[in-house]
Design brief:
By secondary structure, the chain is α/β, with parallel strands linked by helices. It is 48% helix and 15% strand. It has a single domain, classed as TIM Barrel. Helix 3 runs parallel beside helix 4 and helix 4 packs parallel to helix 5. The longest helix is centred in the first third of the chain and has 15 residues.
């Protein structure tokens, strides 16, 4: 848990990988690492085989040896929390606030990041034990919404997810977001399909630089 909390505090960006072909996951993760990304979420496909996603998390965890913190996304049940935990996921991200998911996440010693939108949902997630609350969809609501929320609930750490881009990430930071979940804006599906990893690395570096992360260009070992 400590590793994830420290990485998120420092690097701020979680890259969301959704339906990425299994054979692309390792080279993509290496590319993101070179671009300064230190947190990667692999989402469960509720209509697909979640066991396969768990296997990918397990393989990547073994390959990167804590250089990247891997989490599971779109987790909507306590059973799925357990599946992710067995695979080595370090944090659990959900599209909604479910107390049973938050509770099981905490019991297993993982970082809890449930999704919420309204003040009622946000405070319910926080009271249930969430470490962070995923504000979704942030892009539609805008930075002004986060700024407004921060006035009555400054003690809840909000991660902006959905529609975060280079055009608004600075606004979200200034409004009080402590982190971001970013999917196709960095992990562009077309670039992944075409194997254009140099361009993907450039995108990752641009975002981590703007978010105050490290722009090191370090080679993965």
């Amino acid at each position: 848990m400590a590793n994830t909390l420290e990485l998120l505090d420092k690097h701020k960006i979680i890259v969301i990988l959704r339906r990425v072909p299994e054979d692309k996951c390792l080279p993509l993760a290496e590319t993101l690492y070179r671009g300064g990304i230190r947190l990667v979420e692999l989402t469960f496909d509720q209509a697909g085989d979640m066991g396969e996603t768990a296997k990918v998390i397990d393989r990547l965890r073994g390959r990167f040896d804590n250089k990247i913190s891997f989490g599971a996304g779109t987790v909507i049940s306590a059973e799925q929390v357990e599946l992710a935990a067995k695979a080595g996921a370090e944090y659990i991200i959900s599209p909604n606030t479910d107390e049973s998911v938050i509770s099981r996440t905490r019991e297993l010693g993982l970082v809890s990041i449930p999704g919420a939108l309204t003040p009622t949902e946000i405070l319910s997630a926080h009271r249930a034990g969430a470490h962070f609350v995923k504000l979704f969809p942030a892009g539609i609501m805008g930075a002004a919404y986060i700024k407004a929320l921060r006035a009555p609930v400054p003690h809840v750490r909000l991660i902006a997810v959905g529609g975060v881009s280079l055009d608004n990430i600075t606004d979200f930071l200034q409004a009080g977001a402590c982190g971001f979940g970013i999917g196709s804006a960095i992990a562009e599906p077309e670039l992944i399909r075409e194997g254009r990893f140099e361009r993907l690395e450039e995108l990752a570096r641009t975002y981590t630089d703007v978010a105050g992360g490290l722009r090191t260009g370090t080679n993965f070992i």
